[in-house]
Amino acid sequence: MQSGNLFSRTDLCLQHADPDQKGSCVAELVAAWLGNALDTDAAPLEPINQPGRPERPQLVSPRDLPRRKLTSPEGHAALIHSICHIEFNAINLALDAVYRFRDLPTGFYTDWLRVAKEEAYHFGLLRDHLRSLDYDYGDFDAHNGLWEMAVDTAHDPMIRMALVPRVLEARGLDVTPGIMHKLAEIGDEQAVEILKIIQRDEVGHVEIGTRWFRYLCEQRKLEPEKTFQDLLSQYMKGNIKGPLDRAARRQAGFTEAELDYLEGAG
Length: 266
Prior knowledge:
The chain has about 270 residues and is an all-alpha fold.
């Protein structure tokens, strides 16, 4: 028997400001969805605005974030904090994909709810580690670039799938191995193990974006590779930084032609 609405329940999680409450809300939401306790009837769709987030960290322009040396305790913690912030934003991005895009197959909602749950798990791992370094989430300034892309793509699930998982999140596949190496050099093996988990799961998240991007292209009779290139040119102005982790991106569904194009656009 149905008891509740997927979109209303997802919006409730999206608006939670406290990270712990948001994580608990996501766990309950996923359980309700997998238990067939939620319907997908029409529910009011609110214009996109800021999701629930704690008062701190203070959000600033990326250029206003100070550069810190990883070899200092503060620089070490700042790096962990920056990844923690990315994971918190990723929870909201996954929830917004569920909330915002209607009339899609149930598998779309199952996939992005799974992503939200895994991002909440990643956030918890990183926050616990940050606390072991005598800092907490919110102790450093951060930027809002991930959510700004959610705003820019709020009107079209195909564009969202192309640019959030396949551009912004895929960039994490490229840079995480280098970050792991730097953390290993300063002896932070716990952070390395956490990032191994995140890298493994993020390959799956980007693959979900790839799969649904191609599904939506097929529905619109669009050629996926050309459409992806056109969207990159329109939204990213060709600003794709390399190098790429081609092996991880292949696992996430990128074609060789797409990888060649991305490397040429760098």
